[in-house]
Design brief:
Keywords: Isomerase. It holds the Pfam family UxaC. Its EC number is 5.3.1.12. This is Uronate isomerase. Belongs to the metallo-dependent hydrolases superfamily. Uronate isomerase family. The protein is mainly α. Helices cover 49% and strands 6% of the residues. It is built from 20 helices and nine strands. A four-stranded parallel β-sheet has the order 4-5-8-9, with helices on one face. The longest helix has 22 residues. The radius of gyration is 22 Å and the shape is globular.
Length: 477
């Protein structure tokens, strides 16, 4: 069996298609990275301090990795994941790394292994295959790189070719780290590092400490959240502050895609029940659904793009949540309905080109059945890339196959890496570009697209479309 060169990673195995894909990939590979949605800590770039040891950089914060080991009986505490209940956790980076390497075989065939191997090779220039026997060798090579000035966050940002990176913050964040970035010439409107308005913790009544968070919202906004009208004013004030810090979008991580257009009196009654601690699960769902309409109206006023990330059942692993808190691998996807759920929002604003709503899903079955027909029929809708549990090469391919016939390429929004792992950003974008090169090569080979059209399209997908959709300037001509 012929060996495929690492340069042909993920490109079609058939020689003729591979040659076409190589040419297309070369065009995409030279494009800057637009990263419009992710969870990198802005303090990383604001402070520009050296990264910690390899384990704390690559293993401890990566719930893709720690949840797999938990499934095989290795508790997160043994991997250094901080606890919220006071239970002890491993603090020695080398010990964590050895435990991780001892279970490296668990990641065969997974995108996590692909991303990490490419990160070792392309970011750190470490070619030694990871195994229990090479754990210390790889650790020491990575640690030596991390000690070099060229591996500080801002230096890597430049080397990665990132043009814009959007982080994600709560309205309760004082945006101080973004202020420092702006002062250093890195942030602010049109900057290289911008924020995203993520209001879940002050919108979702089932979020821990929701009412206390709303009190805090009053403090940071200077508005009285004792009334529903004051609450809306506070949210508008924070959106204004986020826009001043460079935000071009909001993000909404609701359990479902449901939207609801309540009267002001109905919404105020729901809000009041929540503030008095009397809201039940149905009230919380109705309030979340209504607030998506409110945020759409705010977007028409302030221009922020809406991102909707529904479908995650948060903290399904209750033991994990109790011991280690949120966002450590305890969430799972659920089936998500869009056609009826989004009807109130689309009835009100779906045909208004001033509004942009980028839809994501954790329910792959909805790509061709619901999402592509919706995006192909409403001016306000764009499709976000496969996300989270779906961000593998296989699903990226299936996404193009499922949605292109109905939504085309230009009702999609480009790739988003959605990562907390800063060093994986170029790797994840590279994977998406390789997959798109293979898909477009097939269309050319089947005489469904000319080579010139494919060349233009792959640059649009990699660079121009996300710039246009997320309002970073530029876009397809």
């Amino acid at each position: 069996m012929p060996i495929i060169s690492p340069s042909d990673l993920l490109l079609p195995a058939e020689p003729g298609l591979r040659a076409l894909a190589r040419e297309l990939y070369a065009l995409a590979a030279e494009q800057p990275i637009i990263s419009p949605h992710g969870h990198v800590d802005p303090g990383l770039l604001a402070e520009d301090q050296p990264f910690p040891d390899p384990a704390r950089l690559l293993v401890v914060p990566d719930h893709y990795l720690t949840r797999m080991l938990l499934s095989q009986g290795v508790p997160p505490a043994d991997l250094g994941v901080p606890s919220v209940d006071g239970s002890p956790v491993e603090t020695d980076g080398r010990t964590v790394w050895r435990r991780f390497a001892a279970h490296w075989h668990l990641f065969r065939g997974t995108p996590s292994r692909l991303w990490l191997e490419q990160t070792f090779r392309n970011v750190f220039d470490v070619d030694t295959p990871l195994s229990p026997a090479t754990a210390d060798t790889v650790y020491d090579a990575l640690a030596a790189r991390l000690a070099e000035p060229g591996f500080r966050p801002r230096a890597l940002f430049e080397r990665f070719g990132i043009e814009v990176l959007a982080t994600t913050e709560s309205p309760l964040d004082d945006l101080g780290r973004h202020a420092k970035l702006a002062a250093d010439g890195w942030g602010g409107p049109g900057g290289r590092v911008v924020t995203t308005f993520r209001p879940d913790d002050v919108v979702d009544m089932e979020f821990g400490n929701w009412s206390a968070n709303v009190d805090r919202l009053a403090e940071v906004s200077g508005e009285d959240t004792g009334t529903y009208a004051g609450y809306l004013a506070a949210l508008r004030a924070r959106r204004e502050a986020f826009a001043a810090a460079g935000a071009t979008s909001s993000d909404h991580g609701h359990p479902t895609a449901r939207t609801l257009d309540l009267s002001p009196a109905q919404a105020a009654a729901l809000y009041d029940r929540g503030r008095r601690g009397l809201a039940d699960a149905a009230d919380a769902e109705a309030f979340r659904a209504h607030m998506l309409l409110e945020f759409a109206r705010m977007s028409l006023d302030d221009g922020l793009v809406m991102q909707l990330h529904p479908g995650a059942v948060r903290n399904h692993n209750r033991w994990l949540h109790a011991r280690h808190g949120r966002d450590v691998g305890g969430d799972v996807p659920q089936a998500t309905e869009y056609v009826h759920a989004l009807a109130p929002l689309l009835d009100a604003h779906g045909n208004d080109p001033r509004l942009t709503v980028v839809l994501y899903t954790l329910d792959e079955d909805s790509f061709s059945r619901e999402l592509a027909p919706l995006a192909g029929g409403y001016a306000a809708l764009r499709l976000g890339a496969p996300w989270w549990f779906l961000d593998s090469p296989e699903v990226l391919r299936r996404f193009r196959e499922a949605v292109t016939e109905t939504a085309g390429f230009y009702n999609t929004a480009g790739f988003v890496d959605d990562t907390r792992a800063f060093c994986s950003i170029p790797v994840r974008h590279d994977v998406a570009r390789r997959v798109d090169a293979g898909f477009l090569a097939r269309l050319v080979a089947e005489h469904r697209m000319t080579g010139d059209e494919a060349a233009e399209t792959i640059v649009d997908l990699a660079y121009r479309l996300p710039k246009q959709v997320f309002k970073f300037g530029g876009g397809p001509s």
